[in-house]
Every structure is written in structure tokens, then in C-alpha cells.
UniProtKB/TrEMBL annotation:
PROSITE patterns the UniProt entry points to: CARBAMOYLTRANSFERASE
Source organism: Amycolatopsis rhizosphaerae
Subunit structure: Heterododecamer (2C3:3R2) of six catalytic PyrB chains organized as two trimers (C3), and six regulatory PyrI chains organized as three dimers (R2).
Ligand binding (L-aspartate): K83, R169, R223
Record function comment: Catalyzes the condensation of carbamoyl phosphate and aspartate to form carbamoyl aspartate and inorganic phosphate, the committed step in the de novo pyrimidine nucleotide biosynthesis pathway.
One GO process term, biological-process aspect: amino acid metabolic process
GO cellular component: cytosol
Reactions catalysed according to its record: carbamoyl phosphate + L-aspartate = N-carbamoyl-L-aspartate + phosphate + H(+)
Protein name in the entry: Aspartate carbamoyltransferase
Keyword Acetylation set for record: no
């Protein structure tokens, strides 16, 4: 694997191998007082974030450090980007400084792909940590890892993705990955929060949350991304919550084995009630924990594995 830029077109066997590696790393570290492996000793991993992040950035940093890589964090506000330096020049600077892998989050869709092109001659691996409204592949991988852990597998499982699908790169990456791994995906949202061309995706579309929950093995609640909205997509936060919020009453509609996911950050009281977020059915904390192991696995396949090919 040369890069991880998207889940669209990602080989299911490679995705499964990454998930299996994450399981193995999790098992290896279980019970260790010092969580440190020598796997990436001598490698340099740089996180380049043009957007704010807590979970993704921290988990990549921990993943790299647990594998003994040297991890350097670069933020746009504290770098030459704030002086007007282009993304291309920043990328080439990082590669020249010795970066083996650059993990990028950027507000422009396609930024990670451009970075991979610019760094092709340098041999620097690129990981997409979220580009605009396009994709967020490691989030989808950690979601898949959590669902495999809770449900025992993904094939023929019905996963409901609820809320602001239109602006969600998490939803897009999950649609591609989960369907490739054999799951059935149903998108539940108001018509205004569904992307154009959704009918061409391998998904079922619904506008009725209550009707879909009894048949769902898992429900993934999405944050309403107000920062990406220009105009009215729904009447009010209260009306959105009434129609599409996951509250305690709706939680009871899920099967007994049903799992609740959320990529974070959560807007408690809007798309998800606090009692639901903290309920036994919730795997939200497990998502964060699995995110470290999944990102360790991604770094392993990029920088330490003999596997070849591009994702």
C-alpha cells in the first residue's frame, strides 16, 4: 500500500488485512504496562492539519508513537501556511525534511490526492485524514473495526447512517467501505441533507428514522455540520432533533444487539441524547480506542509491510 486516500475503490481484501492487523496489534498491546513496539523506529510521520481535530490528530500521534516513529505535528496556523505558502510547497518542504508519511486534513476535496501526486518522486506516503466533504478513510476503517467487534462480522448486516449525509465525508467513506465488505447501508435523512446522485450509490434511502430502526443492526449518527451550511437545510434544531435525533425512546426500537456509533464531535441533545451516547448499546468510546489500533495498522501497511499497491 503506497497511500490511503479513499475507501472508494479500496480492495476489500486489503481493507480486511488492515482490520486484521489492527486486531493483532490490539491483542499484542493488551495488558502491556508500556505500550511500545519497535516497528517504525527510525521513521518520521508528520500530521499536517488545516482544520481543527481532536480524535483523528491525537489518535494518529499516539499510533505513531506506540510504534516508535518520530511524530511531528504541523498546524496551518503555526506554520508558513499562515504566511501564504502553498500546499505544494509545504508538502515538498516536509518531504525534503525527511517525512516518510504525511497525514493531511484539508478543507478542499481532493487535497490528499494532489499531495500524493506532488510527493510521488519523494516516495512519501500520504494518508487522507479528511478532505472537505469528500472522504475520511481511516474513520470508516475504525467504524468497520468497531462493528466487527460488536456484531461479529459485517456481511449482510444492515447499517443505518443518519443525519447530515450531504456534508459528511465520514458517510461517504463508510458507504464505500461497508458495502464493499458485504454490509447493507441505509441512509436516513431529510431530502435537503442528501447528496445529489444518491440514487446511484449502492444504498437504500429513507426519510423515516422510526421505520428503519427495528431492522438495523447498527445506527451511525452524524453531526449536523453547520459550519458547511449556507442557507436553511431544516426549519430548526428542535424540529431536526424531533425527526432525526436518537433519543431513549428510539433506542428501544433497535434490536437487542443493536449498536450506536458516532464519529464525533457529538452535539448532545440534538442528533443524539446524552442517555443514548452513554448507554451500553453505544460503542462511541470503543470507536476512539479502536481508532488508535486501526491507524497503527495503516501506518504499518504503509511503512513496514511488504504489501504493494495503491489505495
Amino acid at each position: 500500500m503506497k497511500h490511503l486516500l479513499a475507501t472508494e475503490g479500496l480492495d476489500p481484501e486489503l481493507a480486511t488485512a488492515v482490520l486484521d492487523t489492527a486486531d493483532g496489534l490490539k491483542e499484542t498491546l493488551l495488558g502491556r504496562e508500556v505500550r511500545k513496539l519497535p516497528t517504525l523506529r527510525g521513521r518520521t510521520v508528520i500530521t499536517l492539519f488545516y482544520e481543527n481535530s481532536t480524535r483523528t490528530r491525537v489518535s494518529f500521534e499516539i499510533a505513531g508513537k506506540w510504534m516508535s516513529a518520530d511524530v511531528v505535528n504541523v498546524s496551518a496556523s503555526g506554520s508558513s501556511v499562515s504566511k501564504g505558502e502553498s500546499l505544494r510547497d509545504t508538502a515538498l518542504t516536509l518531504a525534503a525534511a525527511g517525512a516518510d508519511c504525511v497525514i493531511i486534513r484539508h478543507p478542499a476535496s481532493g487535497a490528499a490526492h494532489r499531495l500524493a501526486v506532488w510527493l510521488a518522486d519523494a516516495g512519501t506516503a500520504v494518508v487522507n485524514a479528511g478532505d472537505g466533504m469528500h472522504e475520511h478513510p481511516t474513520q470508516a476503517l475504525l467504524d468497520a473495526a468497531t462493528l466487527r467487534e460488536r456484531l461479529g462480522g459485517l456481511r449482510d448486516r444492515r447499517i443505518a447512517i443518519v443525519g447530515d449525509v450531504l456534508h459528511s465525508r465520514v458517510a461517504r467513506s463508510n458507504i464505500h467501505l461497508l458495502t464493499a465488505l458485504g454490509a447493507e447501508v441505509v441512509l436516513i435523512a431529510p431530502p435537503t441533507l442528501l447528496p445529489t446522485g444518491v440514487e446511484a450509490l449502492p444504498v437504500t434511502v429513507s426519510h423515516e428514522l422510526d421505520a428503519e430502526l427495528p431492522a438495523a443492526d447498527a445506527v451511525m449518527m452524524l453531526r449536523v455540520q453547520a459550519e458547511r451550511m449556507h442557507g436553511g437545510f431544516f426549519p430548526s434544531s428542535r424540529e431536526y432533533s424531533i425527526a432525526y435525533g436518537l433519543n431513549e425512546k428510539r433506542l428501544k426500537l433497535l434490536p437487542a444487539h443493536g449498536v450506536v456509533l458516532h464519529p464525533g464531535p457529538m452535539l448532545r441533545g440534538m442528533e443524539i441524547a446524552s442517555a443514548v451516547a452513554d448507554a451500553p448499546a453505544s460503542a462511541i468510546t470503543e470507536q476512539v480506542r479502536n481508532g488508535v489500533h486501526v491507524r497503527m495498522a495503516v501506518l504499518y501497511h504503509l511503512l513496514a509491510s511488504e504489501t504493494e499497491g495503491t489505495a
